[in-house]
Amino acid sequence: AKRQGRNTFQWYTEGLNKRVSGRVRLRNALQHAIDQQQFELHYQPQIQDTSGRILGFEALIRWHHPERGYILPAEFIGLAEDTGQIIPMSEWVLRTACRDNVRLNALGFEEYVMAVNVSPMQFQRANFVTGIVDTLKQTGLAAPLLELELTENILMESTTKAIEILQMLRRLGISIALDDFGTGFSSLSYLKYLPIDKIKIDRSFIREVISDHRDAAIVQGIISMANQLQLKVLAEGVETQAHYAYLSKKMCDIYQGYYFARPMPIDELITFLHENEAA
Ligand code: C2E
Ligand code: CA
Ligand code: CA
Ligand code: CA
After folding, report:
1. pLDDT of residue 152
2. How far is CA 35 from CA 18, 30, 41, 217, in A?
3. Measured CA distances, 130 to 15, 127, 222 (Å)
4. Which 3 state secondary structure label does DSSP give 238?
5. Which residue puts its alpha carbon closest to atom 33 of ligand 1?
6. Which of 52, 89, 182, 277 has its CA 20 to 30 A from that of 217?
7. Which ligand neighbours the alpha carbon of 149 most closely?
8. H runs (alpha helix) in the chain
9. Nearest residue to 157 via CA among 121, 126, 192, 189
10. Which ligand is nearest to the Cα of residue 237, counting in written order?
């Protein structure tokens, strides 16, 4: 039994070493990707309930690996956050998303709002707001055409400081969406104080909203709360006509999901817009 225990232990350390060296390799590969500009943004439309109009897009990062193809953010965002590589990456994301939105405008489309995800480390930096102001200036994007998506966890870190930052951003005309709503463990009381514009209902609640009465109760609760707090409410992960019909009946404002459109590269998005919107 001892022997077996020992072997088990060795097996674990070997596994751990492999994991660690896997992380080191990934970190190096990530640095290479940053240097070689292997990242791309894919844009997913957000659709208004009443008009069916596209209001804007969420920018989602992909790593276009020369051998592995597209790698999704779940595989690298966490590590980038740990190593600090998320900072140059986020700067690139913001700049590119703003620039592409200006480009859409120049092509004669109506004005769309570009939503960009903000990482915890990025939000905590002292120069977060000035960095955004600089990027808007450099790219020529009007502040009201930028929305920042933040999770409740980011905002709970230090609430008074977070409120100050959000107030600054909103005074500039930038709008704020609370992402993955309902998945954190924070209390609801902060909704009273946080200067935000929109709540995004996490897609884990939408998936079985039709068949699971518990999900239905939560989703209806969030929608009615948002309406009464005069916040916009968006449902993520709308995958079927049935999802859409249900949510629309429950007075949801905005939808995002595969039922309407998948995230797509800018060129594909332009084609999509030409087909779907009168330019
Ligand atoms: P998120 O902010 O919740 O983004 C929405 C995710 O849902 C995206 O996954 C999107 O592709 C996916 N999605 C959209 N519609 C549907 C649907 O109908 N069904 C299903 N099952 N999924 C749908 P993605 O692109 O893999 O991104 C995962 C997460 O990575 C994002 O979650 C966000 O937290 C993070 N992320 C993505 N891009 C960035 C970025 O530029 N910066 C930072 N800091 N985080 C990012
Ligand atoms: Ca998001
Ligand atoms: Ca989300
Ligand atoms: Ca509403």
Report:
1. 87
2. 25, 9, 16, 47
3. 43, 5, 33
4. coil
5. 117
6. 52
7. 2
8. 2-35, 77-83, 86-106, 120-124, 128-139, 152-156, 159-172, 203-206, 213-228, 241-249, 266-276
9. 121
10. 1
Q: How far is the CA of 215 from the centre of ligand 3 (A)?
A: 16
- ipTM of the complex, rounded to two decimals: 0.97
Ligand 1 atom at shortest distance from the alpha carbon of 200: 3
Q: What is the pLDDT of residues 170-183, one digit of tens each?
A: 999 999 999 999 88
Of the candidates 129, 140, 54, 73, the residue with the CA atom closest to the CA atom of residue 101? 140
Q: Quick one: which atom of ligand 1 is closest to the CA of 86?
A: 44
The residue nearest atom 46 of ligand 1, judged by CA position, is 117
pLDDT for the residue 277: 80
- Residue whose structure tokens are 């209806």: 220
Which residue has the least CA distance to atom 20 on ligand 1? 237
- pLDDT-flagged residues of the chain (< 70): 1-20, 278-279
Ligand 1 pocket at CB < 6 A:
44, 60-61, 72-74, 77, 90, 93, 117, 119, 179-180, 203, 236-239, 256-258, 263
Q: pLDDT, tens digit, for every residue of 206-218? A: 999 999 999 999 9
Looking at the chain, the number of H-run helices and the number of E-run strands are 11, 9
In the numeric block, which tokens belong to residue 95?
A: 């700049």
Provide the token pair at 155. Answer: 């905002």
